Protein backbone atom coordinates (compact mmCIF):
# COMPACT_ATOMS: atom_id res chain seq x y z
CA UNK A 1 0.00 0.00 0.00
CA UNK A 2 1.41 3.29 -1.07
CA UNK A 3 -0.77 5.51 1.05
CA UNK A 4 0.75 5.45 4.53
CA UNK A 5 -2.33 6.29 6.56
CA UNK A 6 -4.81 3.57 7.47
CA UNK A 7 -8.33 3.75 6.14
CA UNK A 8 -10.70 5.87 8.16
CA UNK A 9 -10.02 9.04 10.02
CA UNK A 10 -7.02 9.65 12.25
CA UNK A 11 -7.26 10.92 15.82
CA UNK A 12 -5.84 14.32 14.91
CA UNK A 13 -8.42 14.72 12.16
CA UNK A 14 -11.22 13.91 14.60
CA UNK A 15 -9.75 16.42 17.03
CA UNK A 16 -9.68 19.00 14.25
CA UNK A 17 -13.40 18.49 13.68
CA UNK A 18 -14.01 18.84 17.40
CA UNK A 19 -12.38 22.25 17.43
CA UNK A 20 -15.50 23.76 15.97
CA UNK A 21 -17.46 23.02 19.17
CA UNK A 22 -18.54 26.17 20.95
CA UNK A 23 -17.13 26.80 24.42
CA UNK A 24 -17.66 29.57 26.91
CA UNK A 25 -14.80 31.92 27.67
CA UNK A 26 -14.28 34.86 29.98
CA UNK A 27 -12.15 37.29 27.98
CA UNK A 28 -9.43 39.30 29.62
CA UNK A 29 -9.01 41.65 26.70
CA UNK A 30 -11.33 43.38 24.34
CA UNK A 31 -11.64 41.82 20.88
CA UNK A 32 -13.86 42.97 18.07
CA UNK A 33 -16.27 40.58 16.44
CA UNK A 34 -14.79 38.43 13.69
CA UNK A 35 -16.66 37.64 10.52
CA UNK A 36 -15.43 34.18 9.57
CA UNK A 37 -16.64 31.61 7.08
CA UNK A 38 -18.04 29.53 9.94
CA UNK A 39 -20.18 32.43 11.09
CA UNK A 40 -19.91 35.50 13.22
CA UNK A 41 -17.76 35.38 16.33
CA UNK A 42 -19.27 37.71 18.85
CA UNK A 43 -17.20 40.62 20.15
CA UNK A 44 -15.35 39.89 23.36
CA UNK A 45 -15.85 42.42 26.11
CA UNK A 46 -14.36 41.65 29.51
CA UNK A 47 -15.73 40.47 31.85
CA UNK A 48 -18.77 39.34 29.89
CA UNK A 49 -18.89 35.64 29.02
CA UNK A 50 -18.97 34.70 25.35
CA UNK A 51 -19.39 31.54 23.29
CA UNK A 52 -16.63 31.06 20.75
CA UNK A 53 -15.26 28.09 18.81
CA UNK A 54 -12.83 25.87 20.68
CA UNK A 55 -9.92 26.57 18.35
CA UNK A 56 -10.18 30.29 18.96
CA UNK A 57 -10.63 29.77 22.67
CA UNK A 58 -7.48 27.65 22.83
CA UNK A 59 -5.57 30.25 20.86
CA UNK A 60 -6.69 33.07 23.17
CA UNK A 61 -5.99 30.93 26.20
CA UNK A 62 -2.42 30.24 25.06
CA UNK A 63 -1.93 33.97 24.57
CA UNK A 64 -3.40 34.58 28.06
CA UNK A 65 -6.16 36.74 26.61
CA UNK A 66 -9.04 34.65 27.92
CA UNK A 67 -10.01 32.03 30.44
CA UNK A 68 -12.07 29.03 29.37
CA UNK A 69 -15.08 28.09 31.46
CA UNK A 70 -15.14 24.28 31.59
CA UNK A 71 -18.17 22.65 29.93
CA UNK A 72 -20.97 21.68 32.27
CA UNK A 73 -20.08 18.00 32.13
CA UNK A 74 -16.35 18.48 32.68
CA UNK A 75 -16.48 18.70 36.47
CA UNK A 76 -15.68 15.97 38.97
CA UNK A 77 -19.29 15.54 40.17
CA UNK A 78 -21.08 14.97 36.83
CA UNK A 79 -18.21 12.77 35.62
CA UNK A 80 -18.44 10.71 38.79
CA UNK A 81 -22.16 10.34 38.24
CA UNK A 82 -21.71 9.22 34.64
CA UNK A 83 -18.99 6.81 35.68
CA UNK A 84 -21.29 5.33 38.28
CA UNK A 85 -24.06 4.90 35.70
CA UNK A 86 -21.67 3.30 33.22
CA UNK A 87 -20.08 0.87 35.62
CA UNK A 88 -22.77 0.02 38.15
CA UNK A 89 -26.22 0.72 36.76
CA UNK A 90 -28.03 -2.46 35.69
CA UNK A 91 -29.71 -0.88 32.67
CA UNK A 92 -26.39 0.24 31.24
CA UNK A 93 -24.45 -2.97 31.67
CA UNK A 94 -24.17 -3.43 27.92
CA UNK A 95 -25.16 0.06 26.77
CA UNK A 96 -23.44 3.40 26.88
CA UNK A 97 -24.68 6.30 28.97
CA UNK A 98 -27.18 8.29 26.94
CA UNK A 99 -26.02 11.32 24.93
CA UNK A 100 -27.30 14.77 25.81
CA UNK A 101 -30.91 15.16 24.68
CA UNK A 102 -31.66 17.07 21.50
CA UNK A 103 -33.77 20.19 21.79
CA UNK A 104 -37.34 19.10 22.37
CA UNK A 105 -36.36 15.55 23.23
CA UNK A 106 -37.50 14.55 26.73
CA UNK A 107 -34.63 13.84 29.10
CA UNK A 108 -33.88 10.35 30.39
CA UNK A 109 -35.88 10.87 33.55
CA UNK A 110 -39.24 11.35 31.83
CA UNK A 111 -38.80 9.22 28.77
CA UNK A 112 -42.51 8.49 28.53
CA UNK A 113 -43.11 11.93 27.10
CA UNK A 114 -43.47 12.29 23.35
CA UNK A 115 -40.59 14.15 21.73
CA UNK A 116 -41.59 17.46 20.24
CA UNK A 117 -39.09 18.93 17.84
CA UNK A 118 -38.50 22.60 18.50
CA UNK A 119 -37.60 24.47 15.35
CA UNK A 120 -35.18 27.36 15.34
CA UNK A 121 -34.99 30.22 12.89
CA UNK A 122 -32.09 31.59 10.89
CA UNK A 123 -31.57 35.34 10.68
CA UNK A 124 -33.39 35.17 7.31
CA UNK A 125 -36.41 33.62 8.93
CA UNK A 126 -35.94 30.09 7.59
CA UNK A 127 -36.93 27.28 9.88
CA UNK A 128 -34.40 24.58 10.83
CA UNK A 129 -33.92 21.90 13.41
CA UNK A 130 -30.58 22.12 15.16
CA UNK A 131 -28.60 18.94 15.63
CA UNK A 132 -25.07 18.13 16.72
CA UNK A 133 -22.47 19.43 16.02
CA UNK A 134 -24.38 22.70 15.90
CA UNK A 135 -25.72 22.37 19.41
CA UNK A 136 -23.87 24.06 22.23
CA UNK A 137 -23.01 20.92 24.17
CA UNK A 138 -19.72 22.12 25.58
CA UNK A 139 -20.66 25.54 26.91
CA UNK A 140 -20.66 26.27 30.58
CA UNK A 141 -24.24 26.31 31.78
CA UNK A 142 -25.37 27.81 35.09
CA UNK A 143 -25.04 25.28 37.89
CA UNK A 144 -28.79 25.25 38.53
CA UNK A 145 -29.40 23.36 35.29
CA UNK A 146 -27.72 20.30 36.80
CA UNK A 147 -30.70 19.57 38.96
CA UNK A 148 -32.96 19.59 35.92
CA UNK A 149 -30.92 17.55 33.47
CA UNK A 150 -28.77 14.55 34.30
CA UNK A 151 -25.21 15.02 33.06
CA UNK A 152 -24.34 13.43 29.72
CA UNK A 153 -21.24 13.07 27.60
CA UNK A 154 -21.40 14.97 24.29
CA UNK A 155 -20.27 13.50 20.96
CA UNK A 156 -16.78 15.03 21.14
CA UNK A 157 -16.14 14.40 24.82
CA UNK A 158 -12.77 12.67 24.43
CA UNK A 159 -11.34 15.35 22.19
CA UNK A 160 -12.66 18.38 24.05
CA UNK A 161 -11.66 17.08 27.46
CA UNK A 162 -8.21 16.12 26.23
CA UNK A 163 -7.58 19.50 24.63
CA UNK A 164 -8.88 21.40 27.62
CA UNK A 165 -6.80 19.33 30.04
CA UNK A 166 -3.81 19.96 27.85
CA UNK A 167 -4.14 23.70 27.31
CA UNK A 168 -6.35 25.00 30.07
CA UNK A 169 -5.96 22.68 33.03
CA UNK A 170 -5.70 25.66 35.39
CA UNK A 171 -9.25 26.67 34.46
CA UNK A 172 -10.69 23.27 35.41
CA UNK A 173 -11.85 22.23 38.84
CA UNK A 174 -9.47 19.58 40.17
CA UNK A 175 -7.87 18.57 36.85
CA UNK A 176 -6.07 15.53 38.29
CA UNK A 177 -9.33 14.04 39.52
CA UNK A 178 -10.96 14.77 36.14
CA UNK A 179 -8.07 13.14 34.31
CA UNK A 180 -8.43 10.01 36.42
CA UNK A 181 -12.19 9.88 35.90
CA UNK A 182 -11.88 10.32 32.14
CA UNK A 183 -9.37 7.50 31.97
CA UNK A 184 -11.71 5.23 33.92
CA UNK A 185 -14.63 6.23 31.71
CA UNK A 186 -12.71 5.46 28.57
CA UNK A 187 -11.66 2.07 29.86
CA UNK A 188 -15.18 1.12 30.92
CA UNK A 189 -16.63 2.15 27.56
CA UNK A 190 -13.88 0.51 25.52
CA UNK A 191 -14.46 -2.75 27.36
CA UNK A 192 -18.17 -2.51 26.51
CA UNK A 193 -17.38 -1.84 22.89
CA UNK A 194 -15.17 -4.91 22.70
CA UNK A 195 -17.68 -7.13 24.46
CA UNK A 196 -20.07 -6.13 21.67
CA UNK A 197 -18.19 -8.53 19.39
CA UNK A 198 -20.52 -11.30 20.58
CA UNK A 199 -23.52 -9.70 18.93
CA UNK A 200 -21.70 -8.56 15.80
CA UNK A 201 -22.48 -11.68 13.79
CA UNK A 202 -26.17 -10.88 14.00
CA UNK A 203 -25.28 -7.53 12.48
CA UNK A 204 -23.22 -9.21 9.77
CA UNK A 205 -25.90 -11.57 8.52
CA UNK A 206 -28.56 -8.93 8.37
CA UNK A 207 -31.39 -8.13 10.70
CA UNK A 208 -29.20 -7.61 13.73
CA UNK A 209 -27.51 -4.53 15.00
CA UNK A 210 -25.41 -3.09 17.76
CA UNK A 211 -26.63 -0.08 19.69
CA UNK A 212 -23.94 2.57 19.64
CA UNK A 213 -26.10 5.37 21.05
CA UNK A 214 -23.97 7.73 23.05
CA UNK A 215 -20.61 6.65 21.64
CA UNK A 216 -18.27 9.54 20.97
CA UNK A 217 -16.49 10.43 17.74
CA UNK A 218 -13.08 9.40 18.96
CA UNK A 219 -14.36 6.06 20.21
CA UNK A 220 -15.95 5.33 16.87
CA UNK A 221 -12.72 6.30 15.13
CA UNK A 222 -10.67 4.05 17.36
CA UNK A 223 -12.79 0.94 17.01
CA UNK A 224 -13.72 1.39 13.37
CA UNK A 225 -10.94 -0.75 11.90
CA UNK A 226 -11.44 -3.61 14.30
CA UNK A 227 -15.23 -3.77 14.25
CA UNK A 228 -15.44 -3.40 10.49
CA UNK A 229 -12.89 -6.18 10.10
CA UNK A 230 -14.81 -8.52 12.37
CA UNK A 231 -18.13 -7.87 10.67
CA UNK A 232 -16.62 -8.27 7.22
CA UNK A 233 -15.06 -11.59 8.10
CA UNK A 234 -18.15 -12.96 9.75
CA UNK A 235 -20.02 -12.05 6.61
CA UNK A 236 -17.51 -13.92 4.47
CA UNK A 237 -17.61 -17.02 6.66
CA UNK A 238 -21.39 -17.01 6.69
CA UNK A 239 -21.66 -16.22 2.97
CA UNK A 240 -22.42 -19.79 1.85
CA UNK A 241 -25.08 -20.20 4.52
CA UNK A 242 -26.62 -16.90 3.59
CA UNK A 243 -26.60 -17.94 -0.06
CA UNK A 244 -28.40 -21.20 0.80
CA UNK A 245 -30.95 -19.29 2.85
CA UNK A 246 -31.66 -16.91 0.00
CA UNK A 247 -32.04 -19.72 -2.49
CA UNK A 248 -34.43 -21.44 -0.14
CA UNK A 249 -36.49 -18.30 0.23
CA UNK A 250 -36.55 -17.74 -3.51
CA UNK A 251 -37.69 -21.33 -4.00
CA UNK A 252 -40.48 -20.94 -1.51
CA UNK A 253 -41.57 -17.76 -3.13
CA UNK A 254 -41.52 -19.39 -6.57
CA UNK A 255 -43.70 -22.19 -5.26
CA UNK A 256 -46.18 -19.64 -4.02
CA UNK A 257 -45.94 -20.96 -0.49
CA UNK A 258 -46.34 -18.74 2.50
CA UNK A 259 -44.10 -20.00 5.23
CA UNK A 260 -45.17 -17.56 7.87
CA UNK A 261 -41.72 -16.12 8.40
CA UNK A 262 -42.19 -13.32 5.93
CA UNK A 263 -43.82 -10.42 7.58
CA UNK A 264 -46.79 -8.62 6.17
CA UNK A 265 -44.83 -5.62 5.11
CA UNK A 266 -42.78 -7.74 2.77
CA UNK A 267 -45.88 -9.24 1.19
CA UNK A 268 -47.30 -5.82 0.78
CA UNK A 269 -44.16 -4.70 -0.97
CA UNK A 270 -44.35 -7.60 -3.33
CA UNK A 271 -47.90 -7.33 -4.54
CA UNK B 1 -11.20 -10.10 -3.09
CA UNK B 2 -9.51 -8.10 -5.70
CA UNK B 3 -7.33 -9.37 -8.52
CA UNK B 4 -4.12 -8.04 -7.01
CA UNK B 5 -4.90 -9.06 -3.44
CA UNK B 6 -1.81 -10.99 -2.37
CA UNK B 7 -3.71 -12.81 0.36
CA UNK B 8 -6.24 -14.01 -2.14
CA UNK B 9 -3.45 -15.31 -4.40
CA UNK B 10 -1.79 -17.12 -1.52
CA UNK B 11 -5.11 -18.63 -0.53
CA UNK B 12 -5.42 -20.00 -4.04
CA UNK B 13 -2.08 -21.75 -3.63
CA UNK B 14 -3.12 -23.75 -0.57
CA UNK B 15 -3.40 -27.49 -1.09
CA UNK B 16 -6.60 -29.46 -1.27
CA UNK B 17 -6.67 -33.28 -1.36
CA UNK B 18 -8.11 -34.54 -4.66
CA UNK B 19 -8.86 -38.06 -5.88
CA UNK B 20 -8.62 -38.66 -9.62
CA UNK B 21 -11.61 -40.41 -11.14
CA UNK B 22 -10.25 -40.88 -14.66
CA UNK B 23 -6.97 -41.94 -16.12
CA UNK B 24 -4.95 -38.96 -17.25
CA UNK B 25 -2.08 -39.74 -19.65
CA UNK B 26 1.19 -37.98 -19.07
CA UNK B 27 0.20 -36.01 -15.99
CA UNK B 28 2.30 -38.12 -13.63
CA UNK B 29 4.47 -35.09 -13.02
CA UNK B 30 1.96 -34.00 -10.41
CA UNK B 31 2.71 -37.17 -8.49
CA UNK B 32 6.43 -36.90 -8.94
CA UNK B 33 6.67 -39.45 -11.78
CA UNK B 34 7.30 -37.45 -14.92
CA UNK B 35 6.20 -39.22 -18.09
CA UNK B 36 3.87 -41.67 -16.32
CA UNK B 37 0.07 -41.71 -16.41
CA UNK B 38 -2.20 -40.93 -13.49
CA UNK B 39 -4.39 -43.89 -12.52
CA UNK B 40 -7.96 -43.50 -11.34
CA UNK B 41 -8.16 -43.38 -7.56
CA UNK B 42 -4.85 -41.59 -7.04
CA UNK B 43 -4.87 -39.08 -4.22
CA UNK B 44 -2.84 -35.94 -4.81
CA UNK B 45 -2.77 -32.60 -3.02
CA UNK B 46 -3.53 -29.99 -5.65
CA UNK B 47 -3.62 -26.22 -5.19
CA UNK B 48 -7.04 -24.79 -4.59
CA UNK B 49 -7.28 -23.02 -7.93
CA UNK B 50 -6.46 -26.21 -9.87
CA UNK B 51 -8.60 -28.59 -7.83
CA UNK B 52 -11.53 -26.22 -8.09
CA UNK B 53 -11.32 -26.12 -11.88
CA UNK B 54 -10.82 -29.90 -12.29
CA UNK B 55 -13.77 -30.72 -10.07
CA UNK B 56 -16.10 -28.41 -11.95
CA UNK B 57 -17.80 -31.40 -13.61
CA UNK B 58 -18.99 -32.54 -10.21
CA UNK B 59 -21.13 -29.47 -9.89
CA UNK B 60 -22.46 -29.70 -13.42
CA UNK B 61 -23.44 -33.36 -12.94
CA UNK B 62 -21.33 -34.65 -15.82
CA UNK B 63 -18.35 -36.94 -15.49
CA UNK B 64 -15.67 -35.28 -13.43
CA UNK B 65 -11.95 -35.48 -13.38
CA UNK B 66 -11.35 -35.33 -9.64
CA UNK B 67 -13.36 -35.44 -6.43
CA UNK B 68 -12.43 -33.02 -3.70
CA UNK B 69 -11.95 -33.82 -0.05
CA UNK B 70 -11.87 -31.61 2.99
CA UNK B 71 -8.36 -30.26 3.62
CA UNK B 72 -6.69 -31.37 6.83
CA UNK B 73 -7.03 -27.89 8.27
CA UNK B 74 -10.82 -28.28 8.25
CA UNK B 75 -11.00 -31.91 9.31
CA UNK B 76 -13.36 -33.28 11.92
CA UNK B 77 -10.56 -33.34 14.46
CA UNK B 78 -9.88 -29.61 14.07
CA UNK B 79 -13.57 -28.77 14.22
CA UNK B 80 -13.88 -30.67 17.51
CA UNK B 81 -10.88 -28.85 18.90
CA UNK B 82 -12.40 -25.51 17.87
CA UNK B 83 -15.70 -26.45 19.46
CA UNK B 84 -13.94 -27.31 22.71
CA UNK B 85 -11.74 -24.22 23.03
CA UNK B 86 -11.22 -21.89 20.08
CA UNK B 87 -8.48 -19.85 21.68
CA UNK B 88 -5.88 -22.60 22.15
CA UNK B 89 -5.90 -23.88 18.57
CA UNK B 90 -2.88 -22.82 16.52
CA UNK B 91 -4.64 -21.85 13.31
CA UNK B 92 -1.44 -20.69 11.67
CA UNK B 93 0.06 -24.17 11.91
CA UNK B 94 -3.03 -25.58 10.20
CA UNK B 95 -3.12 -23.07 7.36
CA UNK B 96 -1.60 -19.60 7.09
CA UNK B 97 -4.79 -18.32 5.48
CA UNK B 98 -7.17 -20.41 7.52
CA UNK B 99 -10.30 -18.28 7.22
CA UNK B 100 -9.83 -17.43 3.55
CA UNK B 101 -9.31 -21.11 2.85
CA UNK B 102 -12.42 -22.09 4.76
CA UNK B 103 -14.45 -19.45 2.91
CA UNK B 104 -13.43 -20.99 -0.40
CA UNK B 105 -13.99 -24.54 0.81
CA UNK B 106 -17.40 -23.65 2.16
CA UNK B 107 -18.33 -22.43 -1.30
CA UNK B 108 -17.54 -25.90 -2.63
CA UNK B 109 -19.08 -27.99 0.15
CA UNK B 110 -22.37 -27.56 1.92
CA UNK B 111 -21.41 -27.60 5.56
CA UNK B 112 -23.90 -25.70 7.67
CA UNK B 113 -22.41 -26.84 10.93
CA UNK B 114 -18.93 -25.81 9.95
CA UNK B 115 -20.16 -22.26 9.27
CA UNK B 116 -21.51 -22.07 12.79
CA UNK B 117 -18.35 -23.49 14.35
CA UNK B 118 -16.13 -21.12 12.39
CA UNK B 119 -18.25 -18.05 13.15
CA UNK B 120 -18.22 -18.89 16.83
CA UNK B 121 -14.46 -19.49 16.71
CA UNK B 122 -13.81 -16.20 14.96
CA UNK B 123 -15.94 -14.28 17.44
CA UNK B 124 -14.27 -15.78 20.48
CA UNK B 125 -10.82 -15.24 19.06
CA UNK B 126 -11.64 -11.69 17.91
CA UNK B 127 -12.58 -10.72 21.45
CA UNK B 128 -9.24 -12.10 22.66
CA UNK B 129 -7.41 -10.28 19.86
CA UNK B 130 -9.02 -6.98 20.86
CA UNK B 131 -7.95 -7.46 24.46
CA UNK B 132 -4.40 -8.27 23.45
CA UNK B 133 -4.20 -5.38 21.00
CA UNK B 134 -5.27 -2.80 23.56
CA UNK B 135 -2.90 -4.12 26.17
CA UNK B 136 0.46 -2.51 25.41
CA UNK B 137 2.40 -5.49 26.75
CA UNK B 138 0.13 -8.12 25.22
CA UNK B 139 2.52 -8.97 22.44
CA UNK B 140 5.44 -9.75 24.72
CA UNK B 141 3.74 -11.21 27.78
CA UNK B 142 1.68 -14.32 28.20
CA UNK B 143 -0.31 -13.58 25.04
CA UNK B 144 2.62 -14.38 22.79
CA UNK B 145 1.60 -18.00 22.41
CA UNK B 146 -1.89 -17.04 21.26
CA UNK B 147 -0.69 -14.32 18.93
CA UNK B 148 1.71 -16.68 17.22
CA UNK B 149 -1.23 -18.91 16.33
CA UNK B 150 -3.22 -16.19 14.55
CA UNK B 151 -3.92 -16.73 10.87
CA UNK B 152 -3.35 -13.98 8.32
CA UNK B 153 -6.86 -12.50 8.57
CA UNK B 154 -6.60 -12.32 12.33
CA UNK B 155 -3.18 -10.74 12.12
CA UNK B 156 -4.60 -7.93 10.02
CA UNK B 157 -7.34 -7.50 12.59
CA UNK B 158 -4.81 -7.37 15.39
CA UNK B 159 -2.79 -4.85 13.46
CA UNK B 160 -5.80 -2.61 12.83
CA UNK B 161 -6.81 -2.64 16.49
CA UNK B 162 -3.28 -2.22 17.76
CA UNK B 163 -2.36 0.62 15.42
CA UNK B 164 -5.48 2.53 16.28
CA UNK B 165 -4.89 2.18 20.00
CA UNK B 166 -1.31 3.32 19.52
CA UNK B 167 -2.32 6.34 17.44
CA UNK B 168 -4.77 7.29 20.14
CA UNK B 169 -2.07 7.09 22.79
CA UNK B 170 0.24 9.20 20.67
CA UNK B 171 -2.42 11.80 20.02
CA UNK B 172 -3.40 12.08 23.66
CA UNK B 173 0.26 12.46 24.60
CA UNK B 174 0.53 9.25 26.62
CA UNK B 175 3.11 7.75 24.30
CA UNK B 176 5.91 9.20 22.23
CA UNK B 177 5.99 8.98 18.47
CA UNK B 178 8.81 6.76 17.35
UniProtKB/TrEMBL annotation, chain A:
Compartments reported by the entry: Nucleus
Record-annotated DNA replication complex GINS protein PSF2 N-terminal domain positions: 10-69
GO CC field: GINS complex
Domain GINS subunit residue range list: 152-236
One GO process term, biological-process aspect: DNA replication
Keywords, in A-Z order: Chromosome partition, DNA replication, Nucleus
Keyword Nucleus: yes
Lineage: superkingdom: Eukaryota
Annotated segments matching region Disordered: 92-125, 240-271
Chief site of localization: nucleus
Biased composition (Acidic residues): 261-271
Family: Belongs to the GINS2/PSF2 family.
Quaternary state and interactors: Component of the GINS complex which is a heterotetramer of SLD5, PSF1, PSF2 and PSF3.
Function recorded in the entry: The GINS complex plays an essential role in the initiation of DNA replication. Has a role in chromosome segregation.
Protein known as: DNA replication complex GINS protein PSF2
Organism encoding this protein: Penicillium alfredii
Source taxonomy: Eukaryota, Fungi, Dikarya, Ascomycota, Pezizomycotina
TrEMBL record, chain B:
Domain DNA replication complex GINS protein PSF3 N-terminal: 4-55
UniProt keyword annotation of Ribonucleoprotein present: no
GO CC, alphabetical: GINS complex
Transmembrane segments: none
PANTHER family attached to this UniProt entry: DNA REPLICATION COMPLEX GINS PROTEIN PSF3
UniProt keyword annotations, A-Z: DNA replication, Nucleus
CDD domains reported for this sequence: GINS_A_psf3, GINS_B_Psf3
Family named by the database record: Belongs to the GINS3/PSF3 family.
GO BP annotation list: mitotic DNA replication initiation
Subcellular location: Nucleus
Residue ranges annotated for the GINS subunit domain, each copy included: 74-172
Protein name: DNA replication complex GINS protein PSF3
SUPFAM superfamilies in the record: GINS helical bundle-like, PriA/YqbF domain
Quaternary structure, from the entry: Component of the GINS complex.
Biological role: The GINS complex plays an essential role in the initiation of DNA replication.
Amino acid sequence: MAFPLPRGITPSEIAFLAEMEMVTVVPRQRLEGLELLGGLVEPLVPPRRASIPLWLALLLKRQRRANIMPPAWLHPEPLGLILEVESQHQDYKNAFSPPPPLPGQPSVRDRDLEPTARPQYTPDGDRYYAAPPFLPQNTAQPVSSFSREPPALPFHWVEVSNMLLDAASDDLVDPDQIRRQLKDLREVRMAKMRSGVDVLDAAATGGGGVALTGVGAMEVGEERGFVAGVVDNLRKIGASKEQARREQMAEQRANGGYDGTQDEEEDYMEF
Amino acid sequence: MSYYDIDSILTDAQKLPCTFELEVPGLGILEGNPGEDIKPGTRIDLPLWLGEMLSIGARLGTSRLVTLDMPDALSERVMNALKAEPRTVDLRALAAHFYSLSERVLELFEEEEMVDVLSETFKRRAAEIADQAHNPRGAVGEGVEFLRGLDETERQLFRAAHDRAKEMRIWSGEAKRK
